[in-house]
Design brief:
The complex is a heterodimer of chains A (about 210) and B (about 475). By secondary structure, chain A is of the alpha/beta class. Chain A is built from 8 helices and 8 strands. By secondary structure, chain B is of the alpha/beta class. The longest helix of chain B is centred in the first third of the chain and has 15 residues. Chain B: GO terms for molecular function: 3-isopropylmalate dehydratase activity; 4 iron, 4 sulfur cluster binding; metal ion binding.
């Protein structure tokens, strides 16, 4: 996972609540059993004129300069709700997004962001709205997300502080892999399982099927 | 003074990683071909193995066709790869697989209790957002992403940010003709689509205890649509009876020992929850969604509401998408299709209630009506009981088990901008087809509307 310290980039404001993962990537755009080849399907329902088409809809902000180069998404409440599909995050990442700013995140989507090097920046609703409005108005003005100072700002808006639990911040900051980190606890996990086996033997399904 | 969630969290806490993150032992991992195959493949590509293959299970449900005579070939373009690659990866990993042609196959959350994969007091995860459904059995069950599934498979654990707790207490009992789906939509409309965000939700109270085990699953299933971390109901004798003798349940002395433990799984009477919501069951009516989020739902006799404060843009967008106006009645809206199925409402009692509504009647001309049982076991039972015949005589298609048209994956779907009544959990934009206008409701409501050819109150007998 690519480490993240500080990013200054164009932000795409899609200021709707409940942008679900079906919108971020429709199921029909998940074409292979893998994590790549998904960027073209990002926001496909809004981005193209019809299902299956690749003709860009002029109405969709991401199809216009400078938003086509956005690396930061600003959204409304409950972003990433719906299906657990990590493809939504893989598609965002492959397109180039490294941060999502919103007043609230669906928990699975948030976890998927952290596992894939995308910083979930949770702000107060007014702060997110201020940034979103500014990004719409001052379209060429970039937004900065800083994982060291834990702030986000742009010319005329912010800085706004945001929080992340240490574990997630360290993984994002250093590009660490969660499985590697957890396997450092290997012995402790094995000991826990051994003790638990005596307490709840039925969990381990060791007597055949 | 612990809540049930706190008890299960503590029992599974292997290490405190700090700052509210726990390393939590995972007792069961379920996978399906849509998001689980990629986890298995990615795990193998990283040179890792499944730490506890006996505790992991894979099933085909999302991509497989539900048409009779189905095979690995699917109507969904590129769908075959999801089936064959998941099968190969599951076999290579040595985990149980409920494959096409296996009589146990079905929707993951429906077959898990049928097989007793889920058990009270267990932690269970699946890269599927509706995994909280299984909390109806007193398990700590929650949905994750594919990377987290890979983590759970590799380590037998997950790093979890501890959620706050929320109790939804339902006082009194639901009226006749009102079910768990209505209760769920009522609660979601009350608290909002992110109303339980960051919270583990326990459903409690007389109105919940009075629900049968299938209705409890419907209720827990829908907690996902208020962004809950998980949903849980304290297990009772009904839960134990539903699991006893099932293939992966403990048996003999182990069963007795397990039940003795499980009887203690309940929130302390004085437990404090971070948030409490109380719902009066008597106030719950049959519900139907009007918009593009499950929170946009009203009693069937109601009308499309006006925008709440600060929500004008979202409201307008939903109205335009659904081609519906503020103040309009839901009753009477003409429909193109009706769908009964999904992990929300595809169990035997769901189909039984739908069949009771349509018995001796016909689906309205021009309406496409489809019923997809949740599992092979549900299908066989429904056929034996005459439910299938009743539905087919009324004009419903009767399908093979799977997720089917709950979502549009590029293959089979409802038509452009068609209006569909559906027992599923999501009325999102284009969820069931290109620009499909989905209204979600109970099996009774969907069945009655299919007969009428328009949205009706399922309590109004003889409507059609």
């Amino acid at each position: 996972m690519e480490a993240f310290s500080r990013l200054t980039a164009v932000a795409l404001p899609l200021m709707f609540d409940n942008i679900d993962t079906d919108i971020i990537i429709p199921s029909r755009e998940m074409k292979t059993v893998g994590k790549t080849g998904l960027a073209d399907g990002l926001f496909a329902g809004w981005r193209y004129v019809a299902v299956g088409s690749r003709e860009k809809s002029p109405d969709f902000l991401m199809n216009r300069a400078p938003y086509a180069d956005a690396k930061i998404l600003i959204a409304g409440q409950n972003v990433g709700c719906g299906s657990s599909r990590e493809h939504a995050v893989w598609a965002l990442r492959e397109y180039g997004f490294r941060a999502v700013i919103a007043p609230s995140f669906n928990p699975i989507f948030r976890g998927n962001c952290i596992r894939n090097g995308i910083v979930p920046v949770q702000l107060a609703a007014e702060e997110a709205r201020t940034l979103g409005d500014a990004a719409l108005r001052e379209e060429a003005e970039p937004v900065t997300v800083d994982l060291d100072s834990m702030t986000v700002e742009m010319a005329g808006a912010g800085p706004f502080a945001f929080a992340l639990e240490d574990d997630s911040r360290l993984m994002l900051r250093n590009g660490w892999d969660a499985i590697d980190l957890t396997l450092q606890h290997r012995d402790r996990i094995a000991a826990w399982r051994e003790a638990d086996r005596a307490r709840r033997p039925w969990i381990y399904l060791e007597t055949g099927r | 003074m612990d809540t049930l969630f706190d008890i299960l969290w503590s029992e599974h806490l292997i290490a405190d990683i700090g700052d509210g993150i726990g390393l939590i032992a995972i007792d069961r991992v379920m996978l399906h071909e849509r998001t689980g195959g990629v986890a298995l493949k990615s795990l193998a590509a990283a040179g890792r193995t499944v730490m506890a293959p006996r505790q992991a299970f894979a099933v085909m449900d999302h991509i497989v066709d539900t048409l009779p005579g189905r095979s690995d070939r699917t109507l969904m373009p590129t769908g075959t790869a999801f089936i064959t690659e998941t099968r190969a990866a599951a076999r290579a990993a040595g985990i149980a697989l409920f494959d096409l042609g296996d009589e146990r196959q079905g929707i993951c959350h429906v077959i898990s209790p049928e097989q007793a994969i889920v058990l009270p007091g267990a932690t269970l995860v699946c890269p599927d957002s509706h995994t909280g459904t299984q909390g109806a059995f007193g398990a700590l069950a929650w949905g994750i992403g594919s990377s987290e599934a890979e983590h759970a498979l590799a380590t037998g654990t997950l790093r979890v940010r501890k959620p706050a707790t929320m109790r939804v207490t339902v006082t009194g009992r639901l009226a006749d003709g009102v079910g768990a789906k209505d209760l769920a939509l009522h609660i979601i409309a009350l608290v909002g689509s992110d109303g339980a965000q960051g919270h583990a939700v326990e459903f409690a109270g007389e109105g919940v205890a009075a629900l049968d085990i299938e209705q409890r699953q419907t209720l827990c299933n829908m907690a996902t649509e208020m962004s809950a971390f998980c949903a849980i109901i304290a297990p009772d004798e009904q839960v134990f009876a539903a699991l006893e003798g099932r293939p992966f349940a403990p048996h003999g002395a182990a069963w007795d020992a397990a039940v003795a433990q499980w009887r203690g799984l309940a929130s302390h009477p004085d437990a404090r929850f971070d948030r409490e919501v109380t719902v009066d069951a008597a106030e719950v009516a049959p519900m139907i969604s009007w918009g593009t989020s499950p929170q946009q739902a009203v009693p069937i006799t109601g009308a499309v509401p006006s925008a709440g404060e600060g929500a004008a843009a979202n409201h307008r967008r939903a109205l335009d998408y659904m081609a519906i106006e503020e103040g309009a009645a839901l009753i009477g809206l003409p429909i193109d299709a009706a769908f009964i199925g999904s992990c929300t409402n595809s169990r035997l009692s769901d189909l039984r209630r739908a069949a009771a509504v349509v018995k001796g009647r016909k689906v309205a001309p021009g309406v496409r009506a489809i019923c997809v049982p949740g599992s092979g076991a549900v299908k066989r039972a429904a056929e034996a009981e005459g439910i299938a015949a009743t539905l087919v005589e009324a004009g419903f298609e009767w399908r093979e088990p799977g997720c089917s048209m709950c979502f549009f994956a590029g293959g089979e779907s409802f038509g452009l901008r068609e209006r569909v009544v559906s027992t599923t959990n999501r009325n999102f934009e284009s969820r069931q087809g290109p620009e499909t206008r989905t209204h979600i409701g109970s099996p009774e409501l969907v069945a009655a509307s299919a007969i009428a050819g328009r949205i009706v109150d399922p309590r109004a007998k003889g409507e059609a």
